[in-house]
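Look at one record.

>
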Amino acid sequence: MSDTTGPKDPPKDRQHHRGRPFRGKRLKTTLPKRAVEVPLPEPKTAERIAKVMARAGLASRREAEAWIEAGRVAVNGEKITSPARNVSATDKITVDGQPLPQKERTRLFLFHKPRGLVTTYADTHGRPTIFGALPKTMPRVVSIGRLDLNTEGLLLLTNDGGLARALELPETGWLRRYRVRAHGKIVQAQLDALRHGIEVDGIRYGAIEATLDREQGSNVWLTFAMREGKNREIRNVLGHLGLAVNRLIRVSYGPFQLGDLPDGAVEEIKTRALREQIGERIAAVAGADFSGPLVEREAPIEKAPLRKPEVRAARDVRPSREHAPRPSKGGRRGAPDRNPGKSGRFSPTVAHRGRDERPRDGDGRQPHRGGHRPYKGRRDR
């Protein structure tokens, strides 16, 4: 009889899935959320051409505008030089004579950002960026918000710039939760005062829900939750309270959580889960498209670097036997070494060093190593 107590195989519809099953949830908080009573926007019939090119994954908006000014883009067979033009779905756009790729469906990725990476495409100081660390099979994506150089944790990436902008709006009010380790001492009463907001160096920060988790030596572990985050907000607020942040981890952004995602790994949220979690209003504001195609990309093949010609010639050319120098007897000075790198009878280095470093007797002659006969410069067989 077969054993029925062991683990069962997952259903067929879950054996091969894109990313992992959605494990996010709405985290409980008492922070008030801004009430939004704005009606849903009407779907746009025309958009700026640079935005359409960026949404197709061809380039960023700035790059697309530069291509347009260079005369590389044509609309309905006519070259254009100004990006101030709206196009509709019926217009035919070509770049360098090639048709614009079809717009891919809206996608969202979870990325566990490690420390030491900058959230930008090109850094002026030459530091490594998050986009250089992403897999080559991913589409062109933009980040939803930013994490500074020394902050780690969850970073959302999407191929839809409209979705990124919609999720960054203060009206959206998604909760962002962080784990903080800071050097210094603090009590819970000081953290409770942050619920009413705080002003630091003329900058007003909104309501913050902070909890003192535990003390670890001279450090404390805190949990921060906020609905909108300004540049270096946690570091500035805790610095005002006398704490120095030495580790900052974002563990959730809205319903999406970091969980056990490995450091530097990327996972995609399924389309159905994404559509359910962002809701109808955010999808309408972002102009999200969940019916488009899904493009599978292959990693580019990396070619092995070619060897330098001089190195290859040095390895291929070998001296012929008739022209090779013959080793001389007695290890005289200038004789070739049979075993390079090893001490031996025919090594000029060893023979020369040995004759110079051995102590001499009263007559100036070097005694034999064994001490029973004088050294004559060679050994009798």
Summary: DSSP finds nine helices and 17 strands in the chain. The longest strand covers residues 244-253.
